[in-house]
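Board notes, transcribed. Complex of a protein with cobalt (II) ion.
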Amino acid sequence: MKFSKIFENNEKWVAEKLALDPDYFENLSKGQNPDFLYIGCSDSRVTAEDLMGVNPGEVFVHRNVANLVISTDNNLNAVVQYAVEFLKVKHIIICGHYECGGVRAALNPSDMGQLNSWLQTLRDVYRIHRSELDTIQDDQARFDRLVELNVIEQCINITKIDHVQRSWNTSGYPTVHGWVFDVRTGKLIDLGLNMTEIFGDVSSIYNLNLFNK
Ligand code: CO
């Protein structure tokens, strides 16, 4: 795709929006009130808004390599705090995807420079679930399962964040969801995680017992 085509596309998009609603951008500029925080992979094939069928203003988005929630990631922490405290999102979604290059790299250890430390989190997921993953003989099935287990672990990581726990204590929100996008079929799969139960299992370790100020 040519670089200049992007600006042609943009002009066409603006014209289409205005044809349907002349006040579209004026209304859009007034503010945002999304119900969802979506945390997904940077992979160019996994476009959050398209696969969810949502419009501008409906979902707050954070993407990084392999949809990781790392406690020392200042960017991620700022996104979560803003989404939870100010936007008061009702749902946080962690969305992984099959055929994820980051997950594949974690399955095949090699020197990847800057990516080494980032992918270490994925290797940790492998280690935590090694007993299950090592019983899977089929390479593709093991790869797919690591994608799913990574989503589950990142959902748990979300529950460790103080802003999330504080909001739970105040309002009961946000609900945390684990999804996988199947890039082979276009289908979005809800892993159906019972986060109340999952957090319950680890709350004696991670519950910060935050009291409302
Ligand atoms: Co990916």
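The longest strand covers residues 175-182. The chain has a mean pLDDT of 95.
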